[in-house]
Amino acid sequence: MSTTITASGPLTRWRTIDLLTCAFLGVAFGVAYWAWGLAYEAPSTAVSAMFPPLSALFAWPWLVAGIVGMLIIRRPGAAVFTELLAAVVSALIGTQWGLTTLVSGLLQGLGVELGFALFGYAVYSWAPLLVGGFLGGAFEAVYEWYSYWTDWGFGYKITYLLLLGGSVAIFGSLLAVGLTKLLANAGALSAFPPGQEARERAAV
Amino acid sequence: MTGTGPIASSGEPPAPPAPPAPGCSGSRVEVAGLSWRPYGRARPVLDELDLTIAAGERVLLAGPSGSGKSTLLRALAGLLLTADSGELSGEVTLDGEHGHRAGAVGLVLQDPGAGVVASTIGRDVAFGLENVGLPRGVMPARVAAALSEVGLDLPPDASPLTLSGGEAQRLALAGALVMEPRLLLLDEPTAMLDAATAAGVREVVADLVERRRLTLVVVEHRLDGWIDLVDRLVVLDLDGCIVADGPPDDVLADHADSLVQQGIWVPGAPEPQPVDVALSPAPQAAGGIVAPGQAVVAGTGLGVERRSRRLGSTSRSTTAVADVDLDVVAGQVTALTGPSGAGKTTLMAAIGGLLAPTTGRVAMAAPLTPAGDGNSSDGSGSRQGVTGRARRGPRRPAVDRSRPPHEWSSVDLARVVAWVPQRAATAVVGRTVRDDVLTTARALGHDGTDAETRADELLATLGLTRLAGTDPRHLSGGEQRRLAVASAIAHGPALVLADEPTVGQDRLTWAAVMGTLEAARREGAGVLVTTHDPGVVSRADRQVTLRRPPQPPPDPEPERRPLLARVGPLALLAAALCVLPLPALLGTWRQGLVVLGVELTLGLIGLIAPGPGRRPQGRLRGVLARLAPAAVAVAGVAWSAWLLGGRDLEIAAGAALRVLCLIVPSAFVVGFIDPERLGDHLAQRLRLPARPVVAATAALQRLQSFDDLWTELMTTRRVRGIRADRGLVRRGAEAVAVTGGLLVGALGQAAGLALAMDARGFAEAHRRSWAGSAPWRLPDSLAVLAGLVVIGAAVAAQSLVG
Questions:
Q1: CA nearest B44: which of B65, B64, B67?
Q2: Which residues of chain A does B85 touch, with a Cβ-Cβ cutoff of 8 Å?
Q3: pTM of the model
Q4: Which of B69-83, B482-496, B624-638 comes out lowest in average pLDDT?
Q5: Which of B352, B320, B355, B350 is nearest to B338 (CA)?
Q6: What pLDDT, in 10s, does the model give residues B384-439?
Q7: Inter-chain contact B637–A152, Cβ cutoff 8 Å?
Q8: Which residues from A are below 8 Å from B787, CB to CB?
Q9: Which of A50, A74, A200, B435 is buried most deeply by CB count within 10 Å?
Q10: Cα separation, B739 vs B736, whole angstroms
């Protein structure tokens, strides 16, 4: 990602394909989130037995939708829209957290969004990914302190926040960048900046 | 193949003609110096193109695959930059103007159903009217008029998902017509339809173009039928330039031969000859083990029930196939025909072990079963092999002892069975074209030079050699189709299944596909083809015709609706989210238990279904199913609290109940939230931005198609021999790969839908109206009140219960 191409036209003017791509990504990730919810419990409970905050290491995949949406669309609101819709879909199919998943989705999307907003929606490299990923994880952690981990001490809570923020920033960003590359190379992003970047690289 | 609508897919007469709309007439179109080069392509797709179309003129646009016909059509609609990016120059004007009002240009795409945006056909037709902000009150009349003009005689609340291909194209036409277009653009509207259905759609188009005096531009590479309907034929070449233009008869007289050579179906031209695909034998091929004339596979009494799921409504079961016997015979091509919705695709999947039949059995010939040693150990399989006839009634199956093929491992199945799905794009599994062809041979361990020689021969005869190193996802539709058949037969399977392999193909791809299937037949494979194509049927050794299976009659007595079903989606959402403050309010396990009791009581009241009618089934079961995963989550939280809380059971129980209280209300309401109605409420009551809400609800309508796509991708991997049957890491890697494929498919759908929506004025629909109302009624208030009661109970418990 040496040359960053930003979205065409005014950034706040979403094209139909921007909206639909976010929406379809959201729905697809929603299904994946639901499936990950089923797979997640066993390993996360297992590591919790050793040290409860370690369960954060299995929670980072839930933030990938927002990061991918932002990396592809590159417009304000992309992370919140994609992440929130993914949460809605997983909740409507039926996750263990019910409709409270919506709150998680909103907070996670806002955190990621903030990371890219801090760079003026002009940079789509590691700096906003690390900041946004960490903030998304941190927002979610604070919500979970309040709703699930009410009995934890402050040390555990901070450890959980750092682990979740850090794993989203690193693993979440890696997976999101990988998926975006995969989609760009498959020719599925021709209407979007990452697709144009891939084609520019191939053209050289 | 899911059409179950009450109307047969072909032959229904169009509705009686309506009087011409006053002031309705076609546009004059002028294209001047139009060039378009998508980023990443060396040469422009359209190059300095000039074209003038008079008002009311009917133009057929023809040309070989890749000549930019569809691109030109998108340019006329002003939608080139909707789903692609590139360099655009030159200009397109309508009646001398650059822009046009929303809906002045109607566009119908090739893939039936690609442009569906709503959950009922009435709402789907109203979509364009919503975009221009028409008041809700006038919509039903205009929608009904458009539906009757295209002869779609279904109630407005029918689901678009159950339409046949022909009905879906009529729906798309109605969605364009309701906007009073002056220019109608049709992008291969009949390519995916069988001949009779296509004729029906053409009749509707001819009728309405005549009545409304529209300007018409049709893109097609099958000219027969359309040629009588147009007064001008324009031919593009591979450089995106116009090479012929004039009255159809004149153009055909001068250019028929070159059109035929370019693969265009010209009326009166002789049938194409299948390509002669001469191949070296595949190493250790399964094809040819069963003697010609003997059955490769025998299906007896096959029946398949399908369940369709949709968010916010109960799942429905339909009979896709009922009590069918079918043999596929070695060295023969069997054509499976029948109307759309007859279950051809499903039967094919059942006979090949791609899905488990609900009733009946499938028996592969003994030498092919995984237990067999490939040399017909006791000969019973071949002696008792059934003859090549489909017949009904009981009889001895050819083989008794083996497991049915749908239980076989991926490699065992791949050795014997090959499958060419209808959507060739989902059949891609390799990184390069050559990789893709060799995938199954490698999975079977036949990766010597023999396999490679055969693969290269296949690529050469199918004209794919120069693309051998290319990523197969970048191929054109026709190239992908040829690759799919090549990959299917490369390892010499004994049973080749091809699902509508010639639909939408030009003559060149048609000849390549048929030649490949005939090569498999010569090698002794049993070939089963579902088709509507008379050219395929006439070359088959026998034809089996399926009829639409009888469906269970709809229940005469409607189900009673539970109280929760009478609440609007927004109120349900609010009620379930009311509980968010609970973790802060609940201190002890006793308080949690009180609140949980209140929640359960209110939830159970919500499930009561008073009034007349049939008792609804499975209400409580749905709630429990949704709570099952929650039980694990609750246990996890309890465990962690127990560990930290000095192994105190009371603390653990308190933590568990706190989480449970947060989740239980959702388990009751989630099943009653309809996404489309939620969209109506979010946009009209909460005033959320209209376009994102519409995009989200349109995507939610496609949830079922994601499910289907996932199944198709996994089935492809299984039948190609690369499905991860065991091992956590391999299955994880597979899930990632298939998710990638799913996302690619999802984004492809998004691009198609974006075109269809923008063609109906969605791009500028910042102030739109809504065909669905979003009322707030007494049950809504009561539901929110119930949520508040829970909070009240928590506050009361705080002071009353320790």
A1: B67
A2: 8, 190-192, 195-196
A3: 0.86
A4: B624-638
A5: B320
A6: 333 334 444 444 444 445 789 999 999 999 999 999 998 888 888 988 999 999 99
A7: no
A8: none
A9: A74
A10: 5
Query: CA torsion sign, B434 to B437 to B442 to B446?
Result: negative
ipTM, two decimals, is: 0.92
For residue A53, the chain B residue with the least C-alpha distance is: B640
**Chain A residues inside the 8 Å CB shell of B662:** 97-98, 100, 147
CA of B228: how far to CAs of B16, B73, B225, B267, in Å? 22, 21, 6, 10
Q: Tens digits of per-residue pLDDT, B590-636?
A: 999 999 999 999 999 999 988 888 888 778 888 888 888 788 778 87
Contacts of A5 (CB under 8 A, 6+ apart): A193, A194, A196, A197, A200
- Which member of A8, A17, A48 has the closest CB to residue B754? A17
Q: What is the pLDDT of residue B371?
A: 65
SS3 B128: helix
Residue B766 scores a pLDDT above 70:
yes
Task: Name which of A52, A183, A199 is nearest B747 (Cβ-Cβ).
Answer: A183
Residue of A24, A100, A149 with shortest CB distance to B580: A100
Angle, vertex CA B346, rays to CA B341 and CA B350, nearest 5: 155
pLDDT of residue B312: 53
Q: Chain B within 8 Å of A170 (Cβ-Cβ)?
A: no
Q: Which residues of A163-177 are buried (b: 16+ CB within 10 A; e: fewer)?
A: bbbbbbbebbbebbb
B760: tokens are 């109906």
Give the pLDDT score at B7. 36
Q: Assess A24–B contact: CB distance below 8 Å, yes or no.
A: yes
Can you tell me the distance from the alpha carbon of B590 to that of B705, in angstroms, rounded to the nearest whole number?
46
B108, β-bridge pairs: B186
Q: Which residues contact B23 (CB under 8 A, 6 or more apart)?
A: none
| pLDDT at residue B614, rounded to an integer | 82
CA distances from B74 to A188, B81, B187 (A): 18, 9, 9
Q: What is the total residue count of chain A?
A: 204
Q: Do A20 and B754 touch (CB under 8 A)?
A: yes
For chain B, the residue count is 802
* Contact status, residue B363 vs residue B398, Cβ threshold 8 Å: yes
pLDDT value at position B556? 64
B131: confidence class by pLDDT, cuts 50, 70, 90: very high
What is the Cα Rg of chain A in Å?
17
CA distance A133 to chain B (A): 21
Residue B307 CB contacts under 8 Å (≥ 6 apart), including other chains: B315, B316, B317
Distance CA A184, CA A187 (A): 5
Instruction: Kindly identify which residue of chain B lies nearest to residue A187, measuring between CA atoms.
Output: B474
Which residues of chain A have a CB within 8 Å of the CB of B706?
27-28, 31
8 Å CB contact between A7 and A74:
yes
| Chain A residues closer than 8 Å to B739 by CB | 28, 32
Residue B689, classed as helix, strand or coil, is coil
What is the pLDDT averaged over residues B718-728?
87
Distance between CA B240 and CA B434 in Å, rounded? Answer: 29
| B680 phi/psi in degrees, rounded to 5 | -55, -45
Interface test with B, best of A6, A24, A40, A159 (most B CBs within 10 A): A24
User: B660, B562, B601, B527: which is closest to B786 by C-alpha?
Assistant: B601
CA distance B527 to chain A (A): 32
